[in-house]
């Protein structure tokens, strides 16, 4: 669901490439935060000696290497302080773009399902209940989730067609089953 919302947002945004840069910057920010957490754990539990975790020096070297590459400079708000460009939280992003009534309804519904499924994903059999109960409304929700998956693939490949010349091959079965929410 969140991939669909990101792709729909990008499709409708005037500065698509700039927003892709911000999404990637946010991803790098999270990766470096995870590495910092692991490095801190190395010192907390192993006095900085665990061979498969980074030391503070190694983490700083990695950050310096990342900053020094020309293709990475666009990800920074402030390269000297290692501050990355921000990107919207999903909840903010899902509320900040509009298209048409039907697309907006799909956006709202995808956001609702993302919240519904995300709230119960870890250590819960909540979504499993959708599958094992033979209730039409549960099967409808699962099928609706597949609609967003199909449209995520469609939007991605339309971008790949324009950008890289790849061809989206669809035998129309899924298109007929799920439909295209926003055509490109």
Apparent shape: globular
From the N-terminal CA to the C-terminal CA, the straight-line distance is 19 Å
Which structural category do the helix and sheet elements fall into? mainly alpha
Helical percent range? 55-70%
Determine the number of helices (DSSP H or I, runs of at least 4 residues). Answer: 8
Largest sheet: 2 strands, antiparallel
Neighbour order of strands in the largest sheet:
1-2
Strand content: under 5%
Secondary-structure element series: HHHEEHHHHH
Provide the number of structural domains: 2
Number of strands: 2
Mean pLDDT: 89
Rg over alpha carbons: 21 Å
Please provide a written account of the structure.
With 184 residues, the protein is an all-alpha fold. It folds into two domains: 2-13 and 88-178, no CATH class; 16-84, no CATH class. The chain is 65% helix and 3% strand. It contains eight helices and two strands, in the order αααββααααα. It has helices at 2-12, 16-46, 56-68, 90-94, 101-118, 126-132, 136-164, 173-178, and strands at 76-78, 83-84. A two-stranded antiparallel ribbon has the order 1-2. α1 (2-12) runs antiparallel to α5 (101-118) and α1 (2-12) crosses α7 (136-164). It is globular. The mean pLDDT is 89.
